[in-house]
Amino acid sequence: MTSSLWLSLSLSLVLLNQFPVNAAPNLVCFYDSRGYERQGLAQFTMTDMQLALQFCTHLIYGYAGVNADNFELQSINKRLDFEQRHLAQVAQLKESYPHIKFLLSVGGDADTNEGNQYIHLLESGQQGHKRFIESARDIVRRFNFDGLDLAFQLPRNKPRKVHGDVGSAWKSFKKFFTGDFIVDQDSETHKAQMTGLIRDLSAAFQQNNLLVSLTVLPNVNSSWYYDAPSIANSLDFINLGTFDFLTPERNPEEADFSAPLYEAFGQNRLGHYNVNFQMEHWLLQRVPANKLNIGIATYGRAWKMTKDSGDSGDPVVHSTEGPATAGAQSKKAGLLNWAEICQLMPNPSNRNAQGPNAPVKRVLDPTKRYGSYAFRPADDNGDHGLWISYDDPDSASSKAQYARVKNLGGVALFDITQDDFRGQCTNDRFPMLRAIKYRLL
Fold first, then answer.
1. Structural domains in the chain, sorted by start
2. Model's pTM, two decimal places?
């Protein structure tokens, strides 16, 4: 009896080691520090930050960059980071929130100093890699951060028309897999170099008990740059930018769901433009599910509808004219933060509004598979047409539930400064962040 008991206990320990019990899910909060510099209602203050941190397991401060000459990690906003001591201010919050891990992110589409410095870093060899690693470790330790997030700005997939008849859809697939859409002829070499850099970075950081995470930006073909089975053990977690599959900049003439959870069937859409496909791609490469976080955007993508776009709003919407006019708060054409989108929905203040202030029609997704959209057809003069694809608190909650069901690491929110952090729409501050957190509990 005794030997049988010990055998059972030993077998249980082996099984626990092979199939570890998942820890609490991650809610990785990306913080784009440019939000601190915005004016008016869009300015994200340290008080707002402290409210957000009540929901986060990790805070990722963005963004640092890479010096194109010596490959060292550097600030790309020295006035904010150093002169105004914003990096230090954020790091000091660790004292009040000791359970949160603070990481510094490098890249993230914010580093515009030189176009290909991240590829050049990969090609720089052991000497360049060493300089990057040592400089990154110095800055992370100097400001008492817990680690580094690699959000490298690598070449994107070429934008292409993705809808049409069966023949054109097949041609798009064929070009994708036969190389006509290749944007980096040396991607295999760069993949090996990336693997070496990540392994060396992880080894150096582990000596100081520091974390290393990877963020795969939208429309970067992960197969070209990341040898998933080889780097998984060197990374604490991986954030997938599973949004912006279509954008008005990349796809100006047609509007469609920018971040569907599953493949949207019909109209011969490309099958890999959805969260589930991207996630399964990493799982099939034997990356542990609990290291993968799906990305959710707190902003929507907005196209300009024309008279030729029709008035039904049903996606795919053709004959659009690229990005819609920038919002008063987000100030970027083709992008509206959640507060701006929410306030465009019919409400007492815009009931009788006309022109660019007229309300949009909201179309919900009862299947929870594709996401909601909203639109305003162009008027008789062809003006003020608008079509928006977005995640709202409901769809964000559904994606968080997807992460729970799949036993994933959790969710990465891009980013907290674009949520309705002032409660402008419903008096509920950080509605998307809250919705995700409550579903992950």
1. 23-298+391-440 (3.20.20.80)
2. 0.91
